[in-house]
Structures are given as structure tokens and as C-alpha cells.
Amino acid sequence: MRRNLYLIVAAAVLVAACGGSQPAPTPAPAPPPVDSTAIKEQMRRDSIAAAERARAEAERRAAEERARMEARVTAEMTSAMQAMIHFDFDRSDIKAEDQATLNRKAAILQANQGLRVRIAGHCDERGSDEYNLALGNRRAAAAKRYLVSRGVAADRIEIVSFGEERPMAMGHDEDAWTQNRRDEFEIVAGGDRLVAPN
User: Which strand (E) or helix (H) includes residue 63?
Assistant: First the structure.
């Protein structure tokens, strides 16, 4: 029995020696000290870069908005410059209802000094070719005189007559003739970027 006791104690000692406690783990290396100055400097640089990107984006959007507005104004002014005026049968005097249209054209021409226009006089089909060419010329000249009387330099306005050669309406009745008795206005120079009159 004693011998069994010795064997049990010897086995316990052996077990303790072989599989006993494990060695303590090696501690992880301590992290390097934090350089708060470098972190603050990086944050400052990041903040400046973000502000620069935001400023550049704002400038890009503002430039796009300006370009859209300029294009819209140019389209509106071009449309106003191309608006036609009409005449009574065998007449070349400016009708009262067309004076507002011509006043608008004069204001646009004054606001855009590089703008040049051509006025084309047209007639209906009645009358001889020669007579209608002369009448178309008188109609274009009447519109030019009106614009010059509103302060537009005469050398910025060309005139031409097409007589009855270029009808707008192809009918042979009063409705078609009314449409064909007209002055058309064409921008010939300086119409790329127009500004609105004040």
C-alpha cells in the first residue's frame, strides 16, 4: 500500500513537472508615442485641401450658371432681334403696333455695340417684280430710319429687298398676303454673346 502511495505521488510530481503551468506570455511591445503635433498638422492640411476642393467646385458651378444665364439672355435677345414687323398693302410706313418691337430692337442694339443687322423687305405677290423690289426696299429703309432715329448708328444696319421672291405664306388670299408684307431682321455680326438692355 505504501508502495502504491509512492507511485501515486511520483506520478503526480511527474504530471506537474511535464504539463504544469505554462510560461507567462511575452508582453506586446508598447505602441510608439503619439506625435500630436504631426496629427494636428495633417488635420490642418486635410482641412485646407477640403476647403480648396469646395471652393473650386463652387467656382465651377458658378461658372456653369453664368454660362447658362448668358446663353438664355443671348437666346432671348436674338429672338427679339429676329421678330418681324408687317405692313399694310402698298405701304412702307411703320405701323403703331410695330413701334414697340422696333424700340426693343433699338435698345438691344444700344446695349450691344458690336451687333450688326440686316433688314430684308418683302412684299406680297401683287404688283410687278420691279415695283415690289422697290417697295421692299422702302419697307427695309423705313425700319432702318426708325432705328437710327432711336440712336442706332446707320452703319450697323444693312438693308436688302427681296420683293415678292421669298413669300412666307404660299396662299393667294389676304391672310397669306398679310404675312408676306414684312421686314425680316437678321443678325450678321456680334450676336455670339448678347446682353439685355438696362
Answer: helix 36-82
